[in-house]
Amino acid sequence: MKAKNITAQDVADLAGVSRAAVSRTFSNNGSVAEATRQKVLEAAKKLGYQVNILAQSLNRQRSDLVGLVTTTTRDPFRSLLLEHLIKQIQQAGFQALVTEVESAEDLEQTLQKFIQFRVSGVIITSGRPPAEFAKECVRCEIPVVVINRETDLSNVDVVKSDNSAGAELAAKTLLAANCKRLAYLNVRNDTYSSTARGAAFIKAIAEDIVDNTVSFEQIVAEYPRYEGGVKVARQVFENGVKYDGIFCANDLLACGFIDGARSAFNYRAPDDFCIIGFDDIPVANFESYGLTTIRQDTSAIAKQALALLRQRAVQSDRSQVIQNINVELVKRRSVAKRN
Amino acid sequence: MKAKNITAQDVADLAGVSRAAVSRTFSNNGSVAEATRQKVLEAAKKLGYQVNILAQSLNRQRSDLVGLVTTTTRDPFRSLLLEHLIKQIQQAGFQALVTEVESAEDLEQTLQKFIQFRVSGVIITSGRPPAEFAKECVRCEIPVVVINRETDLSNVDVVKSDNSAGAELAAKTLLAANCKRLAYLNVRNDTYSSTARGAAFIKAIAEDIVDNTVSFEQIVAEYPRYEGGVKVARQVFENGVKYDGIFCANDLLACGFIDGARSAFNYRAPDDFCIIGFDDIPVANFESYGLTTIRQDTSAIAKQALALLRQRAVQSDRSQVIQNINVELVKRRSVAKRN
DNA sequence: TTGAAAGCGCTAACAA
DNA sequence: TTGTTAGCGCTTTCAA
Questions:
Q1: Three-class SS of residue B144?
Q2: Under an 8 A CB cutoff, do A95 and B90 touch?
Q3: What is the pLDDT of residues A262-288, one digit of tens each?
Q4: At residue A162, what are phi and psi to the nearest 5 degrees?
Q5: Which nucleotide lies nearest residue A8, CA to C1'?
Q6: Taking CB atoms and an 8 Å cutoff, what residues of chain B touch A113?
Q7: Between chains, do A259 and B288 touch, taking CB under 8 Å as contact?
Q8: pTM here?
């Protein structure tokens, strides 16, 4: 004998009003006399009534869900971003439908699910949305924002950290510290962001390279993250300190590099080389690292993502927006003036 | 001129079958001839039909959503757990509805939302669910699992790491390393888990305390996380190394302690003191720390949580299950035999 | 195996 | 301000 679900009708009956009055009371939509309102609220409380959002959304043709695509949440930068995104989604009155994807296929399935849920928006922090999906989104009028990646879909908005500005800051900082043998450390299978950072870094030191006042090389780590940094440091410095100014695609790689250089050869930053990361994850500020880095403003990124979502919800055919979020140099020990 | 949504009826019309046939095809429910099935699938593809999960769920009186309550996702351990939970939820065929809560009030609102979404289950990793909520869940037959915390609600299942076993492992390890001046480092506003760990640690060394072969003290950090560890190390070791065997409530605190002791007094682990953490977050394995720790099996925790959810979905009135997940000692540099 | 029909619980246009 | 009513798109008996 299962208890029947409590519906708006039950509340209406108890309160002696119509179902519509109950609906109005709970969605603060349309006018309802204060007295009626109170009766409804009271009856609802007595019965333990809970609006059925499924029915509500079905009727409104839209759920108050926002789909959020992510991957390897455990990554410090991603988890930081994720936290802000979820909070912003909630603050905007939505609920976060979060999925972890590992492949393009995963992504496609996920996006399909999102459409099936009639989400109010989609935020993608990993993978490239297929063109087909974008078309569907246009048809369903679902706004889509990608974060820190590029897209060739003109109806998809972009929020990204200003990689160029960040790389320039890094370059300036290393040059100001009198570094002469510069390098950019990236992972073999790099992403859109890290490629952009490397390119901008080279551009920023191009003159000095031409002048022959500094040298430059790319360092490619075979493995990602901290472990990749450790390993590559051991290879690269095997025959002495080859670089005195290293810009890293991200903090984790930088921390690994620092540890690899220290544990294998007792080379240290900033005594033996200067190093700059990207992201400003919490570990960068641990005393063992004191990593100078380019800070991504995850809070601003999340805010902008939601803002764009809402804008496009209002005007679905507006042209693509690509929003560059300011980054900031965070000075710590790992860079010091050389002589 | 807005495009009309494509419904099962549209597909049925195009395929020349009934709406029911379409429904059956997409929910693999009830029998449908292969020929019909193909016609439906073809028509659906042609139209770009997507099942409306809202309507489906409304009808089934249950969505395939699982509500997931979390907080400060940026925390390394939490993000690790979260990743596994989301993946498990997906693997079980559900979607994760994730909310960040910061207060008891947040939690209550969130849980209400979950009920309104008619979720298939709720997983709580932060905060204590109010009794009222549990009652509602029973009525709505929504299974609830809490992770690494306690509850007095008998219809709520619990999955937790075996804190006692972990603390015992830590105690044994420190005693075996010949540590004599033991301490348990915790944060002032501690959680269920950290209290349990401390209590079990004391119990494990009780005999030795009575024998007077070892001493024991509690260290209380005023601030949480890494920063709390740094600060407390600076206070505690101001007049020399007071403890030679420290068990920490979590890894972050331990890493902070290591750095605080080193940067302020150049005291090092394991030369000057042994230290053991809890969780085994990635940083614990960074070369700068080499932290011996008690590993929580986040993957197993997530798996069990989902398993319990599904069990209770089948048998909603079964008695409470409290599942202890095995922990494991991970030996690294931070403990070494003393003389 | 298939179709007709009765909901699932809600919202919103309209009329009163 | 209120109630009536016609759906929202799907599932699922029941009968054919």
A1: strand
A2: no
A3: 999 999 999 999 999 999 999 999 999
A4: -75, 85
A5: C9
A6: 53, 95
A7: yes
A8: 0.96
